[in-house]
Amino acid sequence: MTGDANAPVCVLGTGLIGGSLLRAARAAGYPAFGYNRSSAGVLAARGDGFDVADDLPAVLRRAAREDALIVVAVPMPAVDHLLADIATFAPECVLTDVVSVKGPVAEAVARHGLSARYVGGHPMAGTAESGWAATDPELFRGAVWAVGVDEGTRAEPWRRVVRLALACGSTVVPVTAAEHDRAVARISHLPHVLAEALAVAGAAGGPLALGLAAGSFRDGTRVAGTAPDLVRAICEPNAAALLDVLEETLTVLGAARDSLRADGTLGELVDAGHDGHTDYRTVRRWEITDVRPGEHDWLARLREAGLRGGVLTALD
Amino acid sequence: MTGDANAPVCVLGTGLIGGSLLRAARAAGYPAFGYNRSSAGVLAARGDGFDVADDLPAVLRRAAREDALIVVAVPMPAVDHLLADIATFAPECVLTDVVSVKGPVAEAVARHGLSARYVGGHPMAGTAESGWAATDPELFRGAVWAVGVDEGTRAEPWRRVVRLALACGSTVVPVTAAEHDRAVARISHLPHVLAEALAVAGAAGGPLALGLAAGSFRDGTRVAGTAPDLVRAICEPNAAALLDVLEETLTVLGAARDSLRADGTLGELVDAGHDGHTDYRTVRRWEITDVRPGEHDWLARLREAGLRGGVLTALD
Description:
three-stranded mixed sheet, 2 domains, homodimer, oxidoreductase (chains A, B)
């Protein structure tokens, strides 16, 4: 499928994202194996014929032996523990992750001395479901997959991570950790916060309000059905960026409130929101074709292209 | 289909809701005709074989002659003009509406001296589309349809309105105008406001953020795709109730911001939001079977039942 489809992928954490990645990687021709902390998760994956174990040192020794690409696929609070063992048992492996924030992962990776072979990743896919039972080898098809282009990133590990993302059917968006985290605060973490607040407001109206609720409430609250621990694990590690955009949004909503109270109008908010929705509906992803990994300024050029909506759909 | 399926329905305004009602009423066996202000709308409806005209006095005279049930199906800003002509040409007809707020319509109806035969209505159905082209005779099937039980409502017109809602495939929620307006501020108008604010926040992140957006942003902003004039016509007439719940929500979001800043946690919001979403997912509609329209205290008893989630799925 890809140039290094014979080098294995080692997925640590076989929940919705990690388990789907294990399936997608194998479907794309990669030898793939994994680790899961819970024996129930291990049994579920094995029951479907996947090579998953709960002995982390053993899995990591195998990854080192086979020069596997290691993918950290656990929620942020569990990342540090995994990295400690990776530093012990597989410090030379190329390392990526699919965690929902990138700055805190990169900092943890640096603390464990693993930065040289690390390239952050974040596939923008998921459902309100979780666990092996929800995994789907097609989860990443047609999705975008953020891949890090921070200063110091090396070309060889970067290519391996990008190849895996492309092999899973995704389009790659090159982005630095800080810019990723600011962007996802806007389009992933703020949606969670607003959905929770909307669910609170609806439920305060009791059975009458909830019984009258139709499409706008259903869609607006959908992600409030996500398990609270998972929402916190996604949003809280990105507190700084989320605080900025939450503050912005409180200002926007406060101005709408003032305008509705003083003049009976929501015109300014509604026009701006409709314009924003139009931007979203019409945003064009364009293909970056003129940057070769490793050449002069490749990281800065990819970063700049990513900010303008550039993506990668193939590698050489 | 129903007891008075032979008495015609006269729909004023043949956009998404009114046009769909014209289709649904005819499909349920009602003779049905209508009025639309724009000749383009009239031609579109006629092209599909519907009896729609742009001469409002003539349509209303016919409604009076045929003892039609008149349905006002225009946005709030256009209601007053229609009521003036109804008071002139068809003051004795039973009158209902499908406008998204009930208090302001009831006040306008009272100003025109039409309260005696008026029963407010609001089918909780719609899409981001509008106009005749989007109409669908099945739009109301499986939806809930709020029907007014304000003091002074008379049993005979009430039964006619309820029969029409049931014939269109909806379940009827009995509710007073004030309680309706407070409820829809929570589950319909606040979702619009939050969707607009989310679209603004996402677009402020430029092509990078919008290009990374996935399911949570798509669902959270869906109704921001609605035409701005329509959103304003839906939300602004309910300013008082919307201001109350917007204020509540600003408080909830402000507390979440404070908690995230001070302690790095969104726990309180996320737990409350998840509980609210669970309430929504598990809200049970139960059937009201022990209230006969016109009997002692029927309006108060229906109102009380509606507040507790009671609905009507049949009439006698």
